[in-house]
C-alpha cells in the first residue's frame, strides 16, 4: 500500500519530469538541420539546376526531422538582379518541404551592381540580416561584406546589427550563418569590415556571446576551421563550379551546444563527362 507521503513524492517526481520534458529552457536543445550552399543556378546552368532539384528532393526524403534548411549563398551565378535566374531558383526551392532560411553570397550580390542585386534578393527572399529561434538556440543569418572587390551594400551595416542582436540575447546559445568564412580574404576595404581591427571586432562578438558555431559556404569544399575557439563549418557546393565533382549538402545535429556534421552526396547528380 502506498503511503500518503510516498504518493506526494511520486506526484512531485512526475511533475518534475513533465516540466523538464516540456520546458525548452530546462533541457538540452536537440535538433537537426540541413545546409545547402553555392548551387549557382541560372537559366544557362542546367547541370547546376538539376543538382539543386536533386538536393531538394533528397532533403525532403531524409528520415530525420529536419527543422530548417539554411542556404548560405551563391544561389544564382550571375546576380540576384537577373529575374529569370531568380524565378528559376525560387521555383526549385519552393519544392522544399522544410522552412528555408537564406542569405546571399558574392555571386548573388555582384560587386558592380550591389545595390540592385541586394534590392532584388530582398524582394525574392527577405531581409539581408535576420534571426530565428530554434529550440531556444538563436540562429543569426548575416549577409556580410563579401570580398576585396565588393563595394558593400549602401546603408547596410551588419556589424551594427549583429552587435545589437547579440546584446539582446547575450547568453543564449547561437549559430551564425554567413557566406564567406572569416578569412583574410573576407576583409573588404570598402565596407565596415575593411580593416583587421574590424575582423578582430567580429571575432570578439563571436567569441563573447556564446556562439557555438559558424556555418559558411563560398569555398566549395568541406572544411573545418576555427575562428578564435569557435568552430567554422564550411559546406560543400551543390553546383558544379571549380573542383566540384558531385553535388553535396551537409546535415547537422545540434545537441546540448555541440554540432555533429555529415555530408550527403546526391548520387544522381554526377557531372556529365566525369
Ligand atoms: Fe560559390
Task: Please characterize this protein's 3D structure.
With 274 residues, this protein is of the alpha/beta class. It has a single domain, classed as Metallo-dependent phosphatases (Purple Acid Phosphatase, chain A, domain 2, 4-Layer Sandwich), CATH 3.60.21. The chain is built from 6 helices and 11 strands. It has helices spanning 4-22, 46-60, 83-93, 114-125, 158-168, 196-208; strands spanning 30-36, 66-72, 100-103, 129-134, 137-142, 174-177, 211-216, 223-227, 230-234, 246-255, 258-270. A 6-stranded mixed β-sheet has the order 4-5-6-7-9-8, with helices on one face. Strands 3-2-1-10-11 form a 5-stranded mixed β-sheet. Strand 5, helix 5 and strand 6 (174-177) form a beta-alpha-beta unit. The radius of gyration is 21 Å and the shape is globular. The termini are far apart. The model has no long low-confidence stretch (mean pLDDT 85). Fe (ii) ion binds at residues 38, 40, 74, 105, 107, 218, 220, 241.
Strand and helix layout:
Blueprint: H1 4-22, E1 30-36, H2 46-60, E2 66-72, H3 83-93, E3 100-103, H4 114-125, E4 129-134, E5 137-142, H5 158-168, E6 174-177, H6 196-208, E7 211-216, E8 223-227, E9 230-234, E10 246-255, E11 258-270
Parallel strand pairs: 1-2, 2-3, 5-6, 6-7, 7-9
Antiparallel strand pairs: 1-10, 4-5, 8-9, 10-11
Bound molecules: fe (ii) ion (FE2).
Amino acid at each position: 500500500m502506498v503511503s500518503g507521503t510516498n504518493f506526494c513524492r511520486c506526484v512531485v517526481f512526475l511533475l518534475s519530469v513533465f516540466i523538464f520534458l516540456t520546458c525548452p529552457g530546462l533541457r538540452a536543445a536537440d535538433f537537426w538541420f540541413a545546409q545547402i550552399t553555392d548551387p549557382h543556378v541560372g537559366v544557362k546552368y542546367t547541370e547546376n539546376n538539376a543538382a539543386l532539384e536533386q538536393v531538394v528532393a533528397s532533403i525532403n526524403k531524409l528520415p530525420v526531422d529536419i527543422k530548417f534548411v539554411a542556404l548560405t549563398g551563391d544561389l544564382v551565378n550571375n546576380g540576384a538582379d537577373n529575374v529569370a535566374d531568380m524565378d528559376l531558383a525560387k521555383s526549385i526551392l519552393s519544392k522544399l518541404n522544410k522552412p528555408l532560411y537564406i542569405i546571399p553570397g558574392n555571386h548573388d550580390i555582384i560587386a558592380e551592381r550591389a545595390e540592385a542585386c541586394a534590392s532584388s534578393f530582398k524582394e525574392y527572399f527577405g531581409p539581408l540580416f535576420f534571426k530565428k529561434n530554434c529550440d531556444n538556440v538563436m540562429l543569426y543569418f548575416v549577409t556580410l561584406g563579401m570580398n576585396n572587390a565588393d563595394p558593400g551594400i549602401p546603408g547596410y551595416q551588419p556589424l551594427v546589427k549583429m552587435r545589437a542582436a547579440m546584446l539582446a540575447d547575450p547568453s543564449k546559445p547561437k549559430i551564425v550563418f554567413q557566406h564567406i568564412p572569416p578569412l583574410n580574404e573576407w576583409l573588404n576595404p570598402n565596407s565596415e569590415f575593411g580593416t583587421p581591427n574590424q575582423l578582430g571586432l567580429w571575432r570578439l562578438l563571436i567569441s563573447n556571446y556564446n556562439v557555438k558555431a559558424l556555418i559558411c559556404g563560398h569555398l566549395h569544399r568541406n572544411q573545418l576551421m576555427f575562428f578564435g575557439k569557435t568552430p567554422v563549418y564550411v559546406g560543400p557546393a551543390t553546383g558544379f563550379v571549380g573542383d566540384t565533382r558531385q553535388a553535396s549538402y551537409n546535415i547537422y545535429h545540434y545537441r546540448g551546444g555541440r554540432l555533429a556534421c555529415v555530408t550527403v552526396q546526391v548520387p544522381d547528380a554526377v557531372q556529365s563527362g566525369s
